[in-house]
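cache lookup: miss for this entity combination. No prior model stored, computing from scratch. Input as submitted by user K.M.:
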Amino acid sequence: MFFLTYLRRELRRRMRQSVVIALGLALGIGLVITVIAASSGVKKAQSAVLSSLYGVGTNVTVTKKPHPLGNGSKNQITVGPPGLGGRGSGGGARICNNGNCHTLNGGKIDNLTSMAYTPISQASVSSVAGLPDVAAAAGGLILTDTQATIPSQAHPSAAAPSSFTVDGVDLGHLGLGPLSNGKIRSGRGLASGDAASDVAVVDSNYAIANKLDTGSTITIGKKDFKVVGIVKQPQGTGAPDVYIPLARAQALATTKPFGSTHLKDKVNTIYVTAASAADISTVQREISGLLPGTTVTTASSLANQVTGSLSSTAKLANELGKWLSVLVLIAAFAVASLLTVAAVSRRVREFGTLKALGWRGRRLVGQVMGESITTGLIGGAIGVGLGFAGAALITKIAPKLSATVNEATGQHFFGAGPGGGVSAVPGGPTGPHAVSVPLTAQVSLAAIIVAVALAVAGGLLAGSFGGWRIVRLRPAVALATVE
Amino acid sequence: MYTLSGVAKNYQKSGRVVPALRGVDLVIDDGEWLAVQGRTGHGKTTLLQMLGGLDRPSAGTVDFDGQNLAAMRESQLTRVRATKIGFIFQTFNLIPTLSAAENVEAALVPLRVPTGRRRDQAAAALESVGLADRARHLPSELSGGQQQRVAIARALVKQPRVLLADEPTGNLDEDTRDEIIALLETLWRERGLTLVLVTHDSPVARRAQRVAVMSKGMLTLRSPSPS
């Protein structure tokens, strides 16, 4: 085909100029792809942080803040060696409940409590599920199991107290909530038939740390649960340690340590999936109206609460990266356009000759456009390569990003107690939750499509300037041009 | 073939009007060979551009085959150039990146001749100018005379009715000049072309049927003087 032969020969003749244009575009496009990849990596990291807390398919979560407690109504356990247990303990442990304190001497403490949030009626889950823009809703219980061996006069040394997080999973909606984010590594997950069974799925990190495996037994709320599966959650995302059926969690958990009020027909978190992404804010409004006094959090508002280097990197990628890419692209497009116009000016006599031979202006414009777009596409291809290289470099050299979520998550809430002991105080779970996530910049198909579009746009823009020059060219003047 | 009536062409230069043609009247018969002579800057090339529809007169009419080129739309002029008029230039004006055959093919591109036929016609045109064995050579690999032969093949491949040559031997040595003029004469005779040839060269002009002399934009006709 004559068009292609002419195009190929012309590009070869102006090899150096074509290479300069292509490299300029490649640089801009490569930068755009790298920024898109980095930005998508940051979003993925944010998503990993958020989905580990609330599950993959969850758009909205509903919680209720714990009631503020005055000094007199403070619950506190202090465990430590004799003499260090606290004021007037004289022995193993001192328990204060609403200001009434007494000492424990010997024995084990195992409390499964919901101190992070105030319980919500399980009927609310059905109400939320019935809202017009809600696709699904599931209740969950985020609990903390606190275990300690109380020192006695006979055995004065205190065993280190321990705690772990327990998630009561709604077996009717396994696609919602933190467990949905994990991958079963051994055994099986929870199933709808497990509602009344003392079975548990354990997070792989917790399982390794506590030498648990499928078939092991774990004590939760003084009950022995059989570990039926090990689940792997994304690294460093602070997911719960143990998952048990919601009904069992409701039966065993109490509202506060040593409390007697169980959580039958209660949940403390509702995970909601909106009918569509566009409905999320509507759903948020509807739930706030339906359940006054609750905290309705969307994934995006939660993302806004993420701070730390993850947040800074997101801002860097979205703002500085975006504008830097735009500037480089503008510069590349300008250089490509100027060089194309210069090339057309050098070929005025050639185009005049072709006009004399009867070539239409639009055919000549098409020829120049073809050359420009080909150069742009070559630049785009190199740019995609540079983008892949940039993304790989970011993945290789980027340090792990830290993310701090200033939101109650029901995670560990034990701090160091006096004398090396550990104390549990309500209110602890609402503190910041920090995780470390790796930044993986991956070039997506969408980024490549953007690159091709930019390459074509760059070529079209440069070709348009050249074409404009050709259209205005009068053959008599062109032929009189001295080269 | 051509009837020019009162053709004038003025150029603007530094705010001044510079007349290139002043009321040129000329009739060129079908199949005639007209040589145009004159000093540099006296309007020879401008006249040729009017005849080729490459430029429009400031005044007057350029009647070609019953159509006034001066009043045609650009697209119509392009069509006339593509089908009926062949051009030969002093500096050959070959596309440097295309081979001899491809340069010849370039004249058939606007006519949308299918690729196979285009190649055959280009090969035949090159053969008619004695360059069949140079078809794949680039212009830079050809001598001046060979390049002008390629240009002649390009002008004639579409079988035009008119051949307009602007100093076609101006860049050639004497021997090559004679070869090219002999070739043009042969093609003119064989094909019944109308040939308008601008030249400084009196020996070349003498071979034409008529000679037009341009002086200060005005044209006078005379018969060629015997050599």
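stored under new cache key. Chain A has a mean pLDDT of 78.
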